[in-house]
Amino acid sequence: MDGKMLARLGTIVFVGVAITAAVIEFTRQPEPAEVGPQARQRGDTGDLRQRLRRCRDMGEAAIRDPACLGIWAENRDRFLKQGAQTPDAPDAPTILWPSAPAEDSIVKEMQPVTPPEPARPPVSPDEGAR
Q: N or C: which end of the chain has fewer CB within 10 A?
């Protein structure tokens, strides 16, 4: 057997193995994925949650219902913990931006600034006579 014949035989075996592996892979059935609950079940089914659901089911009429407005305010307060102060919170709000400048300073800023004239060398008396 010479080298060319051996190379051809090796190529045919390699192609045969590749085709067999591809056929096996394509005929394999995918494993079914585990189906879990879409949403986490919550254990707290309190009165507030029931009232919120009732307001949700009312639709657009809920925005005019004073009971729903109160329920939403209660839920917002519970969520945001209104009135709770952290121990390191400052008493006064921090000012991040300076207050607006006075109107006259804005006018001054808008007026064009004339550049100073360049300094001229002193004139000697004999140059002025010419």
A: C
